[in-house]
């Protein structure tokens, strides 16, 4: 068994995994050395997370072998993975909210409980080693997203992991926090740990990784040295053909204020403030972007505008007509066509178990007189959308939950645009979509803008937001920390506003 | 595979793997297989306790159909079960766990009984019509109560509807022993037998309730599938946020649907009291409200399938009583058989979505 010239931390050979008819992974090969950062790049649905879940013992491969530190390994559970030194930092944190950082770190370890003092020393030692900043006593519910992520990283380090897998770790971070995370990762690499980072942000891949393995439709396409590649080449590998990567921002001359928001205050179910004194205008023929760290009030803002949340105070008027406190049904009855593409597409925007036809009915079934529903026009609209937006579905009666993320989004956005909206509110419309679908969605939004629709776009990719929108509204802890002109703003400025830094400075002066 | 390390040396013996979506025919086939297996397992059970399974099964079928009277008796069992199953199916479609059909049947029967006892002199058809509406009102209002609390205070409807069953049951006891006690019963606690004028007519030798049941199958089918309200029920059932997003008044829909669900169960109570029992007895619901929950789910909340499942249940019940009297098999055995069937049929739902993969064969071979 003298097979290793160089000892790999991880070697995957011919890994396959199917879910039903969907082949999520198809004969994937991948290797990772110690003291290296490998980026796993691929579009959504290309099988990155599935592959990493097999390494961390959540799924079991149908075929293929996994070697860890040169030896063939069977990973049947996360415990197995941990004892092999593999630690995964999931995209959605798995922490106990009411526990302190320290309790979360030791939770689930097999050894007997250490005294709090010894434990704190151990935690602090790891902190010092890698430059992680953490207060061991702080409760998770008091933490910011980046602090929670730090706890997740501590968790795997505490278990002695020397192979770390990070699933889209930067998705929830500001540009500044991302820099900090990268510094920590570089430190770990310097200390000989092997790191896999899953991402679809090309600039981050180029900034942090040594090598890149590209997945496309469940297959490992290629592995390239980061130093010898660029964004364009990576995109081509990822998509499978050359892609034009530019977003247009058509000019619309005539703009009128359509929706006026004044001093809006919204409280969540748990009595915490979601929005504080929000005031802004939405103009026709304009895309207004909304950015902020996850959970800064974006969801509440959209739902309040759409009439789903009743604000505690404030004014909300559509062309001088107050719509405050009105339900979506009442807003419809006023003759305002408000299109809303919510963040939770299948849980709010669509009925997951119904086909396209029945989903088209959702907002219009009431208009017909009598007690029966008329499915004919809905079916026609559904078929028209399938044609125009190239929606891939066996037929218009197939439950929408069986469609891919991109197609689900096309169904939803198609319906909302099909209703000829005056105001269009969209939350993360390209989340989970491949590059092609994303650009199609950007085009659709621009088209609406040209039709004098007032568009609100909540987004997360700051680069895209700066290119696509006309103005950007920045939210931080439910407050507006800036409404800026997209053309004259940088990503760094947005990042600072997202953390509320600029505002604090302004107050300090 | 010589040098394997890691903690566990081998893969687990059996793993579950998600299946591809099966075609409708395959699903149907799987259910039939489950039914056959259930009959086989039930047969083994009968064999173990010393009976000839073929003889027992034969007697069940024969017992349910051996004569015109036997068929009539089977249909009589079917009527309240069918109507009640349709009623609860309406609530379940909305994901509202109406476990209170038992109570709603009773309240429907109580309301209808009032007119049967005190207005027996009204013209026959008017009286029956009023009793029918009273039954609907009784069951509907009884169901509305937990629905109101649900939309106002978000109470747990499962417990609420369940507890109301016992209140309803004891209301009958109250009426039987107090205000509505039959003076001619000679101290025996009962409510007077209905005047013939207040009894449901017989059609083909069975009380007319079966016609009501069949009409309801069609009505509920059309209601759920083709009306705006039926559409609203499906949307609310799958996702309340979606319903609100679409501008639906979720509270109103919940209240309306629960009233309808209870009203249909109330009809079952009226039909049972005025058609089969000709009086109001504490056993008017007799567990039908609970069996209906099983029937509704086995029928996948589809009114036509519910009709079929009800027929099978009724045949089993009537046949078992014949087995009991002619072969001396305890009545509990028919419950065991029912349980076995349920176990297999519900268990097969798992296999519609997942399959097992054994070690080494891997998931490669489909």
Automatic annotation (TrEMBL), chain A:
Family matches, as Gene3D superfamilies? P-loop containing nucleotide triphosphate hydrolases
Pfam families listed in its UniProt record: ABC_tran
- Entries under SMART domains matching the protein: AAA
Where does it localize? Cell membrane
Does S-adenosyl-L-methionine count among this protein's keywords?
no
Q: Where is the ABC transporter domain?
A: 10-242, 259-502
Q: What domain of life does the native source organism fall in?
A: Bacteria
Q: List, alphabetically, the CDD domains matched.
A: ABC_Carb_Monos_I, ABC_Carb_Monos_II
Q: How does it sit in the membrane?
A: Peripheral membrane protein
User: Which Gene Ontology CC terms are recorded?
Assistant: plasma membrane
- What keywords sit in the KW lines? ATP-binding, Cell membrane, Membrane, Nucleotide-binding, Repeat, Translocase, Transport
InterPro entries hit by this protein: AAA+_ATPase (IPR003593), ABC_carbohydrate_import_ATPase (IPR050107), ABC_transporter-like_ATP-bd (IPR003439), P-loop_NTPase (IPR027417)
Q: Decide whether keyword Glycosyltransferase is in the record.
A: no
* GO MF: ATP binding; ATP hydrolysis activity
Please state what the protein is called.
Answer: ABC transporter ATP-binding protein
The species is Diplocloster agilis
Automatic annotation (TrEMBL), chain B:
Protein's membrane topology: Multi-pass membrane protein
- GO-annotated molecular function: transmembrane transporter activity
**What InterPro entries does its record include?**
ABC_transp_permease
Which GO cellular component terms are attached? plasma membrane
Source organism's superkingdom? Bacteria
Supply the alphabetized keyword list. Cell membrane, Membrane, Transmembrane, Transmembrane helix
Q: Where in the cell is it found?
A: Cell membrane
Bilayer-crossing regions: 28-53, 73-92, 99-118, 124-145, 157-175, 204-224, 253-274, 280-299, 306-324, 336-356
The UniProt entry lists the main location of this chain as: membrane
What's one Pfam family the UniProt record gives for this protein?
BPD_transp_2
PANTHER family for this protein: ABC TRANSPORTER, PERMEASE PROTEIN, GUANOSINE ABC TRANSPORTER PERMEASE PROTEIN NUPP
- The entry's protein name is ABC transporter permease
Please tell me the species this chain comes from.
Diplocloster agilis
Upper lineage:
Bacteria, Bacillati, Bacillota, Clostridia, Lachnospirales
């Amino acid at each position: 068994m003298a097979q290793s010239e160089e000892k790999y931390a991880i070697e995957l050979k011919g890994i396959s995994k199917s879910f039903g008819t969907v082949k999520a992974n198809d004969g994937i090969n991948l290797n990772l050395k110690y003291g290296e950062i490998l980026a796993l790049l691929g579009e959504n649905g290309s099988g990155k997370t599935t592959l990493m879940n097999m390494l961390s013992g959540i799924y079991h491969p149908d075929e293929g072998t996994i070697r860890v530190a040169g030896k063939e390994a069977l990973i049947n559970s996360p415990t197995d993975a941990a004892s092999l030194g593999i630690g995964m930092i999931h995209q959605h944190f798995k922490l106990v909210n009411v526990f302190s950082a320290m309790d979360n770190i030791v939770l689930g370890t097999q050894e007997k409980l250490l005294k709090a003092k010894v434990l704190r020393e151990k935690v602090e030692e790891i902190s010092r080693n890698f430059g992680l900043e953490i207060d061991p006593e702080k409760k998770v519910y008091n933490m910011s997203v980046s602090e929670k992520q730090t706890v997740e990283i501590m968790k795997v380090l505490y278990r002695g992991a020397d192979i770390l897998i990070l699933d889209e770790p930067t998705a929830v971070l500001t540009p500044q926090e991302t820099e900090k995370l990268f510094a920590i990762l570089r430190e770990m690499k310097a200390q000989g740990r092997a790191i896999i980072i899953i991402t679809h942000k090309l600039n981050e891949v180029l900034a942090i990784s040594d090598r890149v393995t590209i997945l496309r439709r469940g297959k490992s396409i290629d592995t390239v040295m980061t130093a010898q590649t660029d964004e364009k080449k990576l995109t081509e590998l990822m998509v499978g053909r050359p892609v034009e990567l530019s977003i247009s921002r058509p000019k619309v001359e005539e703009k009128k204020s359509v929706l006026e928001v004044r001093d809006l205050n919204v409280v969540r179910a748990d009595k915490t403030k979601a929005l504080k004194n929000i005031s802004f205008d939405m103009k026709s023929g304009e895309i207004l972007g909304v950015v902020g760290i996850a959970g800064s009030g974006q969801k509440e803002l959209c739902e309040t505008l759409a009439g789903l949340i009743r604000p505690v105070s404030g004014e909300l008027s559509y062309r001088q007509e107050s719509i405050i406190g009105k339900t979506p049904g009442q807003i419809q009855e006023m003759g305002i066509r408000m299109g809303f593409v919510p963040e939770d597409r299948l849980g709010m925007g669509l009925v997951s178990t119904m086909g396209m036809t029945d989903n088209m009915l959702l907002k219009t079934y009431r208009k017909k007189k009598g007690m029966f529903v008329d499915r004919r026009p809905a079916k026609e609209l559904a078929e028209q959308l399938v044609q125009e937006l190239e929606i891939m579905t066996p037929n218009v009666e197939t439950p929408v939950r069986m469609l891919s993320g991109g197609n689900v989004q096309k169904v939803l956005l198609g319906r909302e645009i099909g209703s000829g909206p005056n105001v269009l509110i969209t939350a993360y419309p390209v989340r989970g979509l491949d590059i092609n679908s994303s650009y199609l969605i950007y085009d659709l939004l621009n088209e609406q803008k040209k039709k004098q629709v007032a568009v609100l776009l909540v987004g997360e990719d700051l680069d895209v937001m700066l290119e696509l929108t006309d103005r950007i509204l920045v939210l931080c802890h439910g407050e507006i920390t800036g409404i800026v002109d997209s053309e004259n703003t940088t990503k760094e400025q947005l990042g600072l506003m997202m953390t509320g830094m600029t505002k604090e400075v302004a107050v300090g002066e | 595979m010589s040098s394997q390390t890691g903690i566990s040396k081998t893969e687990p013996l059996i793993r579950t793997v998600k299946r591809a979506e099966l075609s409708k025919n395959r699903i149907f086939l799987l259910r039939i297989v489950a039914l056959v297996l259930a009959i086989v397992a039930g047969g083994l059970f009968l064999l173990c306790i010393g009976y000839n399974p073929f003889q027992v099964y034969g007697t069940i079928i024969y017992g349910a159909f051996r004569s015109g009277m036997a068929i009539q008796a089977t249909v009589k069992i079917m009527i309240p079960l069918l109507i009640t199953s349709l009623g609860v199916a309406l609530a379940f479609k909305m994901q509202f766990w109406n476990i209170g059909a038992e109570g709603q049947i009773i309240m429907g029967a109580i309301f209808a009984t009032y007119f049967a006892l005190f207005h027996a002199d009204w013209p026959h058809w008017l009286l029956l019509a009023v009793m029918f509406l009273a039954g609907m009102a009784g069951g509907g209002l009884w169901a509305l109560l937990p629905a109101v609390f649900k939309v106002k205070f978000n109470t747990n409807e499962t417990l609420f509807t369940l507890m109301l069953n016992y209140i309803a049951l004891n209301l009958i006891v109250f009426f039987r022993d107090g205000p509505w006690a039959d003076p001619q019963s000679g101290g025996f606690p009962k409510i007077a037998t209905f005047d013939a004028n207040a009894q449901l007519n017989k059609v083909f030798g069975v009380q007319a309730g079966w016609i009501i049941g069949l009409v309801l199958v069609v009505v509920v089918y059309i209601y759920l599938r083709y009306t705006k309200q039926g559409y609203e029920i499906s949307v609310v059932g799958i996702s309340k946020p979606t319903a609100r997003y679409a501008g639906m008044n979720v509270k109103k829909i919940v209240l309306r649907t629960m009233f309808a669900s209870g009203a249909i169960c109330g009809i079952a109570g009226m039909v049972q009291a005025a058609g089969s029992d000709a009086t109001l007895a504490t056993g008017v619901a007799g567990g039908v409200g609970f069996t209906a929950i099983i029937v509704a789910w086995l029928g996948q909340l589809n009114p036509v399938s519910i009709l079929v499942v009800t027929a099978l249940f009724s045949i089993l019940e009537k046949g078992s009583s014949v087995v009991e009297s002619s072969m001396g098999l305890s009545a509990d055995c028919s419950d065991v058989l029912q349980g076995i069937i349920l176990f297999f049929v519900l268990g097969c739902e798992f296999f519609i979505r997942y399959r097992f993969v054994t070690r080494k064969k891997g998931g490669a071979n489909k």
